[in-house]
Amino acid sequence: MRILIANDDGFRSPGLAALHAELATVAECTVVAPDRDRSGASNSLTLTRPLRAHRQDNGFIAVEGTPTDCVHLAINGFFEEPPDMVVSGVNAGANMGDDVHYSGTVAAAMEGRSLGLPAIAVSLVGHEPLHHYATAARVVRELIARLAGRRQPASIINVNVPDRPYEELAGWRATRLGNRHKSEPVIVTRDPRGRECYWIGAPGPEQDAGEGTDFHAVAAGCVSVTPLASDMTRHTALPAVEEWIGVCDRD
Ligand code: MN
Question: How far apart are the CA of 9 and the centre of ligand 1, in A?
Fold first, then answer.
């Protein structure tokens, strides 16, 4: 089995190293990751300049681009034969509920899916400093092993793992995405020259964190495994939209 590993925290991140160390025991792994922290990059491609890639002493490839660039470049540029799957992470921090729309970690997995490959995004949930990246990495190895050769039930799987030793995980749950309240306000500061500058505020607190959500599972100490779809069409709203715009053919 051949696995492409990517992330959004950059090629130096401890989560990436832990994931590679674990998956290298069961698969041939190639690591292609951004050259710096690109958290929050979402599904962005760099289209206005060329991309450079730098092979590191440990074999990891650092790309001067986004997580999506990394996966796109690897699959459409570096590999002669595509890998069997893409794994993205281990992210430093949760990617639950609405986070998935901003996450570069999830975006890297989505790009794998866009290019026809099953993909897993994995994040470690806790407060900095995070400790147990190895737990999340082992969870991914277990997930792949439990597939036992079957097709992954959804192309994109979003996994969140509590920051604790593997033996202290309370269980595994299949979950849906929860919801957050709106983000905290933008923070205004001044640079040393007195000019105003801004920080995007922290994610809002959980709004829908009820039974069955990713938030709920992780709060209970469980691994949360959420199947994601990339089709954002609101199919149930189609009839109402047809009625609204008035469906008629111009002929
Ligand atoms: Mn990140």
Answer: 4
- Mean pLDDT, the chain, rounded, equals 96
Instruction: Write the single-letter amino acid at 3.
Output: I
* Secondary structure letter of residue 176 according to DSSP: B
Asked if residues 21 and 3 have their Cβ atoms less than 8 Å apart, the reply is no
- Quote the radius of gyration of the chain (alpha carbons, Å): 19
Q: What is the pLDDT of residues 8-22, one digit of tens each?
A: 999 999 999 999 999
Render 107-146 in DSSP notation, one character per residue: HHHHHHHHTT--EEEEEEESSSSP--HHHHHHHHHHHHHH
Q: Which CATH class is domain 2-179+206-245?
A: alpha beta
List strand residue ranges (DSSP E) for 38-195, in order: 53-55, 61-63, 85-92, 119-125, 156-162, 171-174, 179-180, 187-190
Question: Could you tell me the pTM of the whole model?
Answer: 0.94
Report domain extents, the chain: 2-179+206-245
**For residue 105, how far is its CA from the centre of ligand 1 (angstroms)?**
6
242 CA distance to ligand 1 centroid (A)? 40
CA 232 to centroid of ligand 1, rounded, Å: 23
Of 34-38, 137-141, 206-210, 246-250, the poorest mean pLDDT is in 246-250
